[in-house]
């Protein structure tokens, strides 16, 4: 099943009298359990691509589907709701809330949907990621790798269809970076997510099922090495 | 409230400082209110004590009771369900065995009839029986140490009166009232005006059974009926003083709203990148806004109630000479007003929250 699909998606910006095509017409899809990487220099349209998938902006033309539901035509509020339910974000600078403990980061999700915290689920998820002993620590007490693992936990907790990782290893040394990407790949398979990772570090793509390159708004699939 | 409370617990120092400022403002507002109310009370307490509806004064007195005088027999010209004659004279008294300046006290004498309704309830001692006996406001004992049986001499006159009893809440123009009978009152007031044959009084206090004193009639052109509230607001300085305090308190409440609003606004701006991330994750603006408002409510609630507690405590410790008095209706309404305006101030920040673009979290 295609968890995420882009059909003829195009994004243009108006810059004065010039029209800039940030994303040329693109077709793209990710199956469940698939881990894809998008690499490319900055300014290539990677961010535009990611924010359109994440529903933070709408395409000028074409449609985005999540679990085969049209996503890009919902209004702002419904998109936010869908984003909350179906998309887990992992951002470069950690997207953790500084004044919440690791456990409370997850509990916030329950608070928003007015449900009860599932202690077992939290315990399992955190031990899976090797950070269950850090449950009651604040983000400022965690190392970079631990923060990103907590961010993965936050993204996975809600059982979304899609995980979007924007430079998740930017602030990590090589060993930690490999570790985080490995966890991401493992969880994608195990939990049957569609994971899209945007990165500039080509070495990390060893764990990915497919690698795309973004250049000047054009997305092309790389040949498997 | 989940986020709001977690954040307060995490950034203790920052929020303690904000709460501290709220406490100080609330304390100031409450304290000023207590003083304003106390002072207003000391102007009018003895009038409220009458539980009257109206007062008859001489027409040319311009509602100033000190300038009003007319013969006592004119009480027969007034028709009302209940009426009481009242003579008012300000004076300076001094314990009879002392002579220094320090021991002089400004008082107001009320000349009254024992049988009429404005006669005060005696809480200690006895009612006056004969001439030159007085019932005094209890503050004379609390502030000046005067006891039952003490003699007071009137400044500039060869006249002494004896304290036979005390009553409560008997203050007029921020000074204690001494109640005495009409013959003694005539002696006191005559000091300034020479002997007069007829008995002179200042006012007739009336109670009425119908609204707006409709059943009170004067059959004399020289006399006029005023409602008690009109009389009170025309007490010299009373309205000016109440307005002054009222304005100060009003402005302080506004300033409190602005200060809390600005604090919350700055905090929200500081957090805007984090809020952007939250919005990118699909957390709705309304959830975040509710959390901001909830946090303001918590801060102002804690601050205002601590301020209230401190004020009540201060009230207990103040010496009797400070005209501080609690009025629970005022305290309750100012408490809720402060919290409401603080929360209203936080609505500034809601706009900021709504305008934060989650796109910025990604770029």
Provide structural commentary.
The complex is a heterodimer of chains A (225) and B (363). With 225 residues, chain A is an alpha/beta fold. Chain A has one domain: Rossmann fold. Chain A contains six helices and ten strands, in the order βββαββαβαααβαβββ. Chain A has a six-stranded mixed sheet with strand order 6-7-8-3-9-10, with helices on both faces. In chain A, strands 2-1-4-5 form a four-stranded antiparallel sheet. In chain A, α3 packs parallel to α5. Chain A starts with a strand and ends with a strand. Chain B is α+β, with helices and mostly antiparallel strands and 363 residues long. Chain B has two domains: 2-44 and 239-361, no CATH class; 54-215, no CATH class. Chain B contains nine helices and 15 strands. Chain B has helices spanning 2-10, 12-48, 139-144, 182-193, 228-233, 238-270, 272-280, 285-317, 328-355; strands at 54-58, 70-71, 78-79, 82-95, 105-112, 124-125, 133-137, 151-154, 160-167, 171-172, 175-181, 200-201, 203-207, 217-218, 223-227. In chain B, strands 4-5-11-7-9-8 form a six-stranded mixed β-barrel. In chain B, strands 2-12 form a two-stranded antiparallel sheet. In chain B, β10 and β11 form a beta hairpin. In chain B, α1 (2-10) crosses α2 (12-48) and α8 packs antiparallel against α9 (328-355). The mean pLDDT of chain B is 90. At the A-B interface, α1, α2 and α3 of A face α1 and α7 of B.
How many separate domains of chain B? Answer: 2
How many H/I helices of chain B?
9
Query: What would the principal axes of the Cα set say about the shape of chain B?
Result: elongated
Return the domain count of chain A. Answer: 1
- Using DSSP, what is the number of strands of chain B? 15
CATH topology of chain A: Rossmann fold
Q: Classify the oligomer.
A: heterodimer
Structural class of chain B: alpha+beta
Order of helices and strands of chain B: HHEEEEEEEHEEEEHEEEEHHHHH
């Amino acid at each position: 099943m295609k968890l995420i699909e882009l059909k003829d998606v195009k994004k243009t910006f108006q810059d004065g009298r010039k029209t800039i095509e940030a994303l040329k017409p693109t077709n793209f899809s990710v199956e469940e359990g698939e881990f894809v990487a998008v690499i490319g220099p900055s300014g290539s349209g990677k961010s535009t691509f990611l924010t359109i998938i994440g529903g933070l902006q709408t395409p000028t033309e074409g449609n985005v589907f999540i679990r085969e539901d049209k996503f890009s035509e919902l209004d702002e509020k419904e998109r936010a709701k869908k984003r909350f339910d179906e998309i887990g974000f992992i951002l470069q600078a950690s997207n953790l809330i500084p004044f919440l403990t690791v456990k409370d980061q997850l509990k916030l999700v329950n608070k928003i949907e007015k449900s009860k915290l599932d202690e077992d689920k939290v315990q399992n998820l955190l031990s899976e990621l090797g950070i269950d002993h850090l449950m009651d620590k604040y983000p400022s007490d965690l190392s970079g790798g631990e923060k990103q693992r907590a961010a993965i936990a936050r993204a996975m907790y809600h059982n979304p269809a899609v995980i979007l990782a924007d430079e998740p290893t930017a602030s990590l040394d090589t060993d930690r970076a490999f570790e985080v990407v490995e966890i991401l790949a493992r969880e994608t398979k195990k939990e049957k997510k569609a994971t899209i990772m945007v990165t500039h570090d080509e070495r990390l793509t060893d764990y990915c099922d497919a690698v795309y390159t973004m250049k000047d708004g054009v997305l092309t699939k790389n040949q498997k090495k | 409230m989940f986020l709001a409370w977690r954040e307060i617990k995490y950034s203790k120092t920052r929020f303690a400082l904000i709460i501290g400022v709220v406490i100080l403002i609330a304390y100031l507002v409450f304290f000023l209110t207590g003083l304003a109310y106390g002072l207003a009370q000391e102007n009018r307490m003895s009038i409220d004590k009458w539980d009257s509806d109206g007062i008859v004064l001489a027409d040319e007195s311009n509602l100033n009771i000190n300038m009003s005088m007319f013969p006592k027999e004119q009480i027969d010209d007034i028709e009302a369900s209940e009426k009481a004659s009242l003579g008012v004279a300000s004076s300076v008294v001094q314990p009879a065995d002392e002579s220094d300046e320090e021991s002089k006290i400004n008082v107001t004498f009320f000349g009254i009839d024992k049988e009429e309704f404005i006669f005060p309830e005696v809480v200690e001692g006895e009612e006056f029986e004969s001439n030159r006996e007085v019932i005094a406001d209890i503050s004379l004992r609390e502030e000046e140490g005067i006891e039952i049986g003490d003699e007071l001499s009137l400044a500039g006159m060869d006249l002494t009166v004896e304290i036979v009893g005390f009553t409560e809440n008997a203050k007029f123009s921020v000074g204690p009232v001494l109640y005495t009978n009409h013959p003694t009152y005539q002696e006191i007031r005559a000091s300034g005006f020479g002997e007069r044959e007829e008995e002179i009084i200042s006012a007739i206090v009336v109670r009425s059974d119908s609204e707006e004193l409709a059943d009170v009639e004067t059959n004399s052109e020289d006399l006029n009926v005023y409602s008690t509230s009109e009389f009170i607001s025309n007490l010299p300085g009373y309205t000016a003083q109440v307005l002054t305090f009222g304005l100060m308190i009003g402005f302080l409440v506004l300033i409190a709203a602005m200060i809390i609003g600005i604090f919350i606004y700055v905090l929200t701006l500081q957090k805007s990148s984090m809020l952007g991330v939250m919005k990118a994750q699909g957390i709705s603006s309304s959830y975040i806004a509710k959390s901001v408002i909830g946090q303001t409510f918590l801060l102002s609630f804690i601050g205002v109630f601590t301020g209230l507690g401190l004020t009540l405590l201060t009230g207990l410790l103040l010496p009797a000479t400070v005209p501080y008095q609690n009025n629970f209706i005022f305290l309750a309404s100012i408490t809720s007003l402060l919290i409401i305006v603080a929360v209203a101030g936080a609505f500034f920040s809601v706009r900021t929250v709504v305008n934060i673009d989650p796109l910025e979290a990604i770029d």
